[in-house]
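Priority: low. Protein: Isochorismate synthase MenF. Input follows.
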Amino acid sequence: MIKVREETLESTLEMAVNSIESSESRLVSFTKKIDEVDALQFFEAGKHLKTNRSFWSSTIDNFTMVGLGSAYLIADEEVNLQTIHKKWNALLHNAIINNNYQTPGTGVTAMGGMAFDPLKARTPLWKKFSKSELRIPEFTLVQDREQAYITYTVMVNKVDNPSEIARYILEKEEILLSHADTTLHDIQVKAREEIQPHQWKNTVGKATQYISSGKADKIVLARELRLKLTEEANVTAVLASLMESQPTSYVFAYEQAGDCFIGATPERLVKVEESQLLSTCLAGTAPRGLNQTEDEKFGYQLLHDKKNLEEHNYVVQMIKGSIQSLCSSIQIPETPVLYKLRNLQHLYTPVHGILKDDYSIFNVIEKLHPTPALGGEPREKAVSFIRENELLDRGWYGAPIGWLDSNQNGEFAVAIRSGLLQGNEASLFAGCGVVKDSDPEEEYEETSLKFLPMLTVLGG
Ligand SMILES: C=C(O[C@H]1C=CC=C(C(=O)O)[C@@H]1O)C(=O)O
Ligand SMILES: [Mg+2]
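Result:
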């Protein structure tokens, strides 16, 4: 990676083009600080570029990232994180980076996600999504509390004209930073179809038998709710509603040729900021009460419920065991606390570690995905059970989604409480941890609650 300190975008591009010797191409990025902007407006204005957009917001940290277009794609029909990691490193090795800031999300940045299980056959539902993808946007906006930055990234080669490229970028920037008209549609759900509810409960029964016979300890099973909407949902409006209704979640969107995977997940998989590593154990669920007394009662019961504590503990033990070799120290509290969302509450245990020098966020994702909050325990047994018995193509649901940058920062969440928007239709996904004491009816109710965050913002 070549770090440069050129004054302007054009001089950076000029330097880059001049540095190219043969037929190779090089990634060039230029970061500048800008006045605070509304990230959702920027996302909406991105429609003018007629390319794929991506959105990430860690509402709790007041950190938002918007990616528009694609300067480079690392897409794979496998989810081999080592290969992706190598490609990312190779790309950065040759990149020319002009970035005077330390803020996470500046410099070369990628946003992406992957399929929950690359071995599960893909159905037409997810046909627009590859098994894994890291997209290096042409325009990346980062809003970190009150500070805003924009990074342009382009691939250049020897014959490119730096001033032409600079002109193109600055013209586009003007459009992106000018006020966009968001037409707020009042969409409604016209029809909904729960996909095979009866069979799903049978599969839960089958999983509990499998567990009782000692073949596994926990298996997470998910199901789908298919919606017809009165009109096509405006992604910006859906994001705005999610940010308002789920302020303690990660709000994300990833567009792919007209389809959009979108959600508000409370579950962090991993955050790396320099050598600091954070992860989250989130499993075990109860509804919110209608008033404070009832809410506290449900919370108290959840904290003392054997079945939910068991669901939770598998996640804690697995995360602890998985990151041990990657960290020089790990801190995990002994007992979970409650994590409250608008429609439900969870058992929550935070994980803090110091990542050893030789490891990056890729190594952590590789170790952690899928945790027993989405797969089960033991992992291989649970994932094969899901592959063979679940009535759903999970696609990117339940898998890591997030971003990383050229300064070893990044964050990935587990893509739950999510849905796939397809024109005026949508599929929502929700799952639950099945253990030996699981009751199919209760698990069914639990998944119904987990549809609510997405269902509500779609007018259902
Ligand atoms: C699989 C989902 O939730 C997981 C995360 C938190 C609590 C869970 C539970 O209590 O079953 C699930 O493991 C989902 O929301 O689709
Ligand atoms: Mg549960």
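The mean pLDDT is 95. The pocket of ISC (ligand 1) is lined by residues 220, 222, 267, 282-285, 311, 346, 373-374, 416-417, 430-433, 450 (CB under 6 Å).
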